[in-house]
Records
---
Amino acid sequence: MIIDCHGHYTTAPAPHQNFREAQLAAFEGGLALPTPLTISDDQIRESVESNQLKLLRERGADMTIFSPRASAMAHHIGDEQVSKQWTRACNDLIRRVVELYPETFIGVCQLPQSPNVSISNSIEELERCVLELGFVGCNLNPDPSGGHWTSAPLTDKSWYPFYEKMVELNVPAMIHVSGSCNHNFHATGAHYLNADTTAFMQFLQGDLFSDFPDLRFIIPHGGGAVPYHWGRFRGLADMMQRPALSDHVMKNVFFDTCVYHQPGIDLLFDVIDIDNILFGSEMVGAVRGIDSTTGQYFDDTKRYIEALNLSKQDYYKVFEGNARRVYPRIDALLESRGL
Amino acid sequence: MIIDCHGHYTTAPAPHQNFREAQLAAFEGGLALPTPLTISDDQIRESVESNQLKLLRERGADMTIFSPRASAMAHHIGDEQVSKQWTRACNDLIRRVVELYPETFIGVCQLPQSPNVSISNSIEELERCVLELGFVGCNLNPDPSGGHWTSAPLTDKSWYPFYEKMVELNVPAMIHVSGSCNHNFHATGAHYLNADTTAFMQFLQGDLFSDFPDLRFIIPHGGGAVPYHWGRFRGLADMMQRPALSDHVMKNVFFDTCVYHQPGIDLLFDVIDIDNILFGSEMVGAVRGIDSTTGQYFDDTKRYIEALNLSKQDYYKVFEGNARRVYPRIDALLESRGL
């Protein structure tokens, strides 16, 4: 079984976006927020079958851990109520995709974060999604300001109530920023990668996993700049008299494989322990075209991994085993199906 | 000849830092700024001979392109006058190092940037350093706010007067941020790498090099996350209907080799054209220790490059030729010495 740990519903039917626009217009006009528009099952089927499902089948993967479009979370737009309503609508839509294709999709939720609003206020939605909707994890935004980085670092105690709930529910979080309203940062070309690098360095500096030995994070996009600069991070840990990264960070932090060329994947697997790598493609996501140098989709990361000639055991880890370990609720679900 | 394109005076004698502290205390107290303290030639010799010169000799390099300590530029502290005075003191000290060791060091200047102050105000110091002190380039900070990223992107026309002067003087700039006053960003573990990635993506998005075909930038730290995510950037350029990176960006942008492990250097040279890579070590810099897995200094990047078994011609490019091409004033100086 091949599980893609990183898929977003980037192709949601038009009424979903239309609702968002009406919602923001109402907010700006000081009017009551509208209710989400009706979306039919057929609209959902069409949006998925011609995109994610089609590519999944073509590429030979079995299951996608699926969450709302990351760039559209836009926690910096509107206020907490706007974020809450939008988040519920996004998560409910993921739930409907999962209901229509339970063999293929499994839900991960967006959180109703908002700048200067306590992360504790996101606990309720996490519980709803995990306990009522059957989701297996969440996307946690380290910068709800959208590129102004006004929050406390992820190791700050203000995040702890949320981490306690994650541990209690036994769900991991993917660290994932949203769109950028800072004109210095292109979202998918700078802000995403910067956030990945930033989060890792915060974990290196802090002692978060002494306080939460069971907390688990996935840092997407191949860990940002981290594997390429692995010597730098090992050296910084040494200079700062932190423990070795293998003990201090890498028992709790995992990287996906959203690195869109063979040399990058080669380096990732060369440098990072196989137990810390989860197959992911971010499909349909940041980069949708075909690489003229290979004739294949940039984001068909399964090809790059298959070119590595790993052992059978290592392939099992990257494609399935690590995901089942990091997301125990997936493991339980698959077991209940005899898988 | 082996030229290290990235060295900072991180070991300046104590009176330099004492002056800085007195200067900032005076600023905060609303008093007249003090004048720089006297530093003897012997103090300078000692600070360099036991550090940069010692390591340079041990590692077998010949020359370092030398600039003030990057993390201490701290453009976000004080105001424009404070930045101007500190910048002059830092640059004057670099000039003295070069005068004492003209065969080994060649100067690159800090700029008197300050948040919300026009970059045009840095032209005078650039001219002074190049025309009077014999410097060959500058370090340009894309974020003088120190981690709040309040400036316009590097492709914005507000930067153009400075670029015109760079072209006129025929000097390149290394894109280099300073310390971070944003608690999310560790300076050398996150802010530096994020800035490198951010600058590259700004160049990809913009059309700066159509306006300035002769403008040249060095992006340090191996280009941040860029080479590791080279497929992502090629794919984004394709999606955004930009020209190929080789034409659009890489005629004007160069990466150094400040990547502190063998797999990272392997990837850099695998992915980036040899004409775009300049040997650099950032010594004595961000990571000063010895890698326990190799028994060698993390930042002894010459070793990693030598392990690549490049052709003689390619070694010439990385160690000398590219630096002479990107910094024409170095080439002229060396030619005047018959080198």
---
Amino acid sequence: MARIAMLGTGLIGMFYTVALQGKRGRDEVTVVYGRDPERTKAFAEKHGVPRWTTEMAEAIAASETDAVVIGLPNHLHKEAVALAVEAKKPVLCTKPLARNAAEAREILEVVEKAGIFHGYLEDLVYTPKTLKAIASVQQGAVGKVLWTRSREAHPGPHSDWFWNKELSGGGAIVDMGCHCIEIGRSFVGKDVRPLEVVCWGDTQVHPIEAEDHAVGLVRYATGAVAQFEVAWTFRGGMDLRDEVSGTEGSIWLNHWLRTGFEVFSSGGPGGYVAEKAESETGWMFPVGDEAAALGYEAMFTDMLDALEAGRPPVETFYDGYVVNAIMDAAYRSMETKRWEPVELEIWRGTEGGEGRAAAAAYDERYDLIKRERMPDGRVKLILKDRSSGEVVQKVEGS
Amino acid sequence: MARIAMLGTGLIGMFYTVALQGKRGRDEVTVVYGRDPERTKAFAEKHGVPRWTTEMAEAIAASETDAVVIGLPNHLHKEAVALAVEAKKPVLCTKPLARNAAEAREILEVVEKAGIFHGYLEDLVYTPKTLKAIASVQQGAVGKVLWTRSREAHPGPHSDWFWNKELSGGGAIVDMGCHCIEIGRSFVGKDVRPLEVVCWGDTQVHPIEAEDHAVGLVRYATGAVAQFEVAWTFRGGMDLRDEVSGTEGSIWLNHWLRTGFEVFSSGGPGGYVAEKAESETGWMFPVGDEAAALGYEAMFTDMLDALEAGRPPVETFYDGYVVNAIMDAAYRSMETKRWEPVELEIWRGTEGGEGRAAAAAYDERYDLIKRERMPDGRVKLILKDRSSGEVVQKVEGS
Amino acid sequence: MARIAMLGTGLIGMFYTVALQGKRGRDEVTVVYGRDPERTKAFAEKHGVPRWTTEMAEAIAASETDAVVIGLPNHLHKEAVALAVEAKKPVLCTKPLARNAAEAREILEVVEKAGIFHGYLEDLVYTPKTLKAIASVQQGAVGKVLWTRSREAHPGPHSDWFWNKELSGGGAIVDMGCHCIEIGRSFVGKDVRPLEVVCWGDTQVHPIEAEDHAVGLVRYATGAVAQFEVAWTFRGGMDLRDEVSGTEGSIWLNHWLRTGFEVFSSGGPGGYVAEKAESETGWMFPVGDEAAALGYEAMFTDMLDALEAGRPPVETFYDGYVVNAIMDAAYRSMETKRWEPVELEIWRGTEGGEGRAAAAAYDERYDLIKRERMPDGRVKLILKDRSSGEVVQKVEGS
Amino acid sequence: MARIAMLGTGLIGMFYTVALQGKRGRDEVTVVYGRDPERTKAFAEKHGVPRWTTEMAEAIAASETDAVVIGLPNHLHKEAVALAVEAKKPVLCTKPLARNAAEAREILEVVEKAGIFHGYLEDLVYTPKTLKAIASVQQGAVGKVLWTRSREAHPGPHSDWFWNKELSGGGAIVDMGCHCIEIGRSFVGKDVRPLEVVCWGDTQVHPIEAEDHAVGLVRYATGAVAQFEVAWTFRGGMDLRDEVSGTEGSIWLNHWLRTGFEVFSSGGPGGYVAEKAESETGWMFPVGDEAAALGYEAMFTDMLDALEAGRPPVETFYDGYVVNAIMDAAYRSMETKRWEPVELEIWRGTEGGEGRAAAAAYDERYDLIKRERMPDGRVKLILKDRSSGEVVQKVEGS
């Protein structure tokens, strides 16, 4: 059992608390910190949290606090981590770890220097589908990964600070790109070095400074490319999809709008259908168990099991730092309009990649480009003459 | 926290134990009973259960047993419940409650007479999607329920006793129809009386006595019809779908083969893809978190919360009895080839139904049959003359 | 090239004309008959039909009429066919052929006696998906057919006469059950005798005499069961789905609401989205090419190619008669509340069925019930002792 | 009626011929040209083409040739067009128009100078779903278009010349990117200037010179971005999907692998399931009418109707030229690793774009960033102070 100090009372603090205390969980949020006393008190009452405070240090240092969960706006992560380190408490921080790689590195170094347990609350890597898909990829179900696509798009976040670049560090990339980048990295392999990024981003709709729409490509040392797509401009609910393409297979995940739950209603029930749904009549696509589908349950299971077992969780502050470094390159690419290198002063994975899959020799003269069965049942080969480069086709048995 | 005696070490015992002990759960299986010592010992070791036995009474009476979970073949439920009653332990029994309504009634009466807490482990009513869909229906999202369809079909069960009519009480209806019937009942309203059943069943493929395929209709007092479809003959994996149709809307649930998780693999990873999947190459449709998707998590949460709170769970032995009574009528209908009444000696819901939705009067002369917008934007009305019965159409504004 | 007399100017006449004259078709509607002069004239102008009339006999007898297409209400089919026979013109009649089997038989006999070419315009058997699925079934893709389900449901027809039992002959069964029954029959095999029907039907919502909702089962001589589901009470658009389940496979068709075309619109474009769509905002599911998706194109291609080639089309008046006989049994079953025989005075298919698939002998003692691969990779067999009937399980290699 | 000279006997020539002569079409292929006499003769026999030749000029000049359809490898388009111009015959050319923009411009100029009718056979713009989606976008269903995604991916083409960069002009971009680019352009608006392109491409799997995988972004003058994704490395069949995202809505199209046709077969029927399907067992996803689903029917309808009516078709050689110019920029970007301008010496659309959607003023002080309904029913506004830039939130009615 873990006793948690929850920092933050917004949507994310609510989701974390529900996930931690939900079902037959053995963990408890024992103190909650918020800036606004009324709101914090209400949060504590609603979720049965015995103690609340508007002093962050108090929540962290409380004797009943076994671990600290940071669910605060991005600009407050560094301060909160520092307080946890001071109190020598394990600390779990929401995504993104920081507003940029420099800040993320500072945060990483302070916890590592102090030897503090740290977890990076990258929930979307932990959705039941994503976990199983990553395991399938690791078992070879799709062969060598060639390309991934991770997309998160909706009509924009619920809280004001997200829309303020000072406080958040950016726009849709900082808000959601961090998810998409880490999902892509998890499919490609987290020990594979991200080399460079090209990114388009624009402020297409809203009267804000930061980008409300962006698409980027991250190129990895194996030659794989991981595509991320983020938007605060999407209409239709929340579009949360991942795709992987490899030499031997493909995976398509749809986490939100098409999960096998389809409702048509001519006149709404008046209730809350799903996070970021846009309407209460017509065809709607709710999600069965939102906290589970978003990965919160499996994430805290890993985090707290890791804490108790004395092992690192799947996602640590180091991962948060790598993601920030990739996002920094994306923002530079938006400015320079070219591929920008990912600057990773700290790199703990492998170097070099694997190059192209070895050409399959067909015989002494030819390499095999493609083998396919034709409608008439015969097999056609497309071959390349290794010396002349000529491409020919040949029907087997003819 | 609840300390559980698990009776049974088959697939269902495994799923129950994983659900009870999974994630950050606070409950524990403290003793497991099985008939085969080797298998029971292996089960205990695999799932970290501290004690195992081949004596059912011992597991139930053990001082560390707070509650008993029955995961045994159908013909053993009555004996196991009797032992729990004797030991005055709360008892949760897998589906179906019994082999027929008479046996179910005996089981119900023995627990009620003893005042023992009892839960009916009807997991498919508890899937995250089903729970949310039932709540939507109760909130009026589809209006008055007119029709439901619940389908469970796969290539047949894993254990031998299912295929033996003596031990199981029947075939696919007893195995899976109980799920489909209770899902339909949950949509129509559990206090609405099931009136009669017509059912087709046949042994189409397997060399067995019992039906391996059946389709039935249950007519309720409100006029709603709940359709159940069960098969041990289905090819393609496990087909687990529900539909509801009401005066104001529709719901379609797909729990298994189309949940937003799609994998193509040219050469399998060698691993376990999903319960009852049929292949390890080509397009496959795994489920993210099987125990959650099948409702085990939410079911035990309700059951054990109810036990602690001193309230009945959503599904009690009484529900199991009603389901058995409906299945009995289905089996009779297979014999007599006609609608058969549902014989419920114990009925605790409402009597009577609601009849047809009141006709909407259009004006003094006509009832409104239908109002529709035509492609050209005008509105067409189809009206019925209340006295002459004549049906006419009228374009508004023309 | 065929020159067509189109009888009827309603929705069905419009769809037929668009299909016949659409794209780069070589056929032409050269005369159109309708009861209302204004409407008929407008129809002719809109579709470029050179001649119109309010005299049915004139349209049929016209020198430029090569073939007659009947798109009239059910109670007028017999008269129209008689006029075509009199004029010795090939005749294609919309579905259902008649209001009941007796009337259908009269219609069939009059055309056969006169040796007139006749086609039954059962468009939903001809959708591109259905045609390919039937071909797959015939090639053995699903093995022996065990069960089919065909569903058509929407909020009710557009014209007044459908709602008048006198004119139409019935309700949703006569309107749409004819489609579903012939689709099921096409999957089971059109030469397999339909034996009996059980059917539930009710008037759940509308102030009409006829059923607005029905579900029926047709049992065939091979043991296959074909389920039909029809509703004028469905909310959400038009639900048009078919399923087939066989010993070796399964097919699922969705013709309308989920065809890979998904639109979310916050504020409607003002246009016509799709036949029987219910809204113009929110998530909508249009169909690309409605006339093609509903089978009209492939149907007229078969019909007119057959006429030119002097062969019968896939669907003849005989098929229409069989369908009427099955619907008659369904209506009787609604009254008697039991399975009712299909009374076919004219039967041109095979007699007898195939019985259960032969049991697979495992060895001298056992029949094989099921073979399955377990999660650990081993193969488990479920076997039945032929003499004792005992069911056992055995793990291969153990 | 049009009498067609078909140049080419490959897969594309076959699809074109089937589409032209299929169903009840009034057009005919009257002569076919191929380089290989045996194959050409066989093609003519199979498709009922009365005349065949290995002389391209002969086929074009034949007195029975009303129009020429070019279905040849890319490097032969220019020569074929020149011969058609010489013979003063209308000419329809397959995609891409040429190997690069310079060659495309030459082709365009020669037909325009001669005043010859020309059509660009961009079939995927003409699929029934795409046509309807483009019409919806033009009617305003999604508001202002912000982003599009068009994807075509499969395991590689059937003929050898595609794999030879000399003959084809490139790899997957030239083969399929032309489709995706024109689809994106059709959604954004064909009169909107494409400004610049960034593109990643790589040869990931095959022993060839050209790219077998590429992703690019095309930025348009309105600020919209059109994403294209092409791969010869995809496993699982043919992935053919389009998406559009606008200020008021979204569209998702799936043309191939998920169209509402789903088959599971344990042992294949031996037949041809679908173009580029990868297996004949397990779950498969055929397409009902392939020629229609790929747009061939609607394309030739538009082309030949346009020819007869003396109007230009939807897709002309000019469109082919624009697409080639965009592909040229994509190839340059792959080299320079930066955004590259689209060089269009001939531009016939509008100049300038529309900029960001006008900010919605909330009151004298604030702009509205977002309005949303909260779970509790109240409406929350996120506002930006126009002078200070501060972002605040406000709950209406509180």
